[in-house]
Amino acid sequence: MKIKYLIDFSALVLIYMFVFFHRWKKQGKDRLLVNTLMYLYLSCVLFVTLMPVITSLPFVFNHSYTFMNLVPFIDVTMGRGDFVRQVVLNIVMTCPFGFLFPLTWNGTKKFARTVISCFLMSLGIEVLQPLINGTRSSDITDIITNVAGGMIGYGIYVMFRPVTFRMLDYLKMKNEK
C-alpha cells in the first residue's frame, strides 16, 4: 500500500527537479523559495485528497462514478457524520493556498486570481476524487469551504505582506551579491 504513495511522490520529486527547479532558480532565490513552498504545499494537498494517483489510473473506469452532491451544507443541516471537522479541515487545508498563491504572482488583481485559482483547484479535486478512488465522494460544501479557506489565507497574506516582502527583498539582495 505504501509503495503506491512512494511512486506518486517519486514522480512529484522528478517533476520538481527536471521541470521546475532550474526554471525557478534562474528567477532568483526569492522565486525559488516561494514557488518551492507552493509546490510542497500542493503536493501535500494531493497526498490528502487524491493519492495514490499513478497506480490508480489503470482502474479509473473499474467502478461507478458518483456524482457530486450539489446541496450545500446538507451534512450540516441533516446532522450527518463529523461535518464540523470536515468543514474546519477544508478551510484549514486551503489557507496556505490563499497565503502562498499571491506571492507567486507579480501582477495585479491578486485577490481575484487567488479566489478563482482556489476554486479551480478545489473543483478539480472534487471532480477527480470519485474517478480516481471509487470510495471517495465529492461535495459542493467542500468547494465552498475550500474557497473560504483560500480567502482567509489571502487575508493573512495581506496582514503579513510588509513582513513577507521584507524577507523576499532580503533574499533578492543576497542573490544579487
What are the defining features of this structure?
mainly alpha
Structural features, described:
By secondary structure, the chain is mainly α. The chain has one domain. The protein has six helices and no strands. Helix 5 crosses helix 6. The longest helix is centred in the C-terminal third of the chain and has 37 residues.
Helix tally equals: 6
The fraction of residues assigned to DSSP E strands is under 5%
* Strand tally: 0
Give the uncertain stretches in residue-range form. none
Spell out the blueprint of helices and strands.
Elements: H1 2-26, H2 29-49, H3 74-78, H4 83-104, H5 110-132, H6 140-176
Helix pairs in contact: 1-2, 2-4, 4-5, 4-6, 5-6
Give a brief description.
This protein is 75% helix and 0% strand. It is built from six helices and no strands.
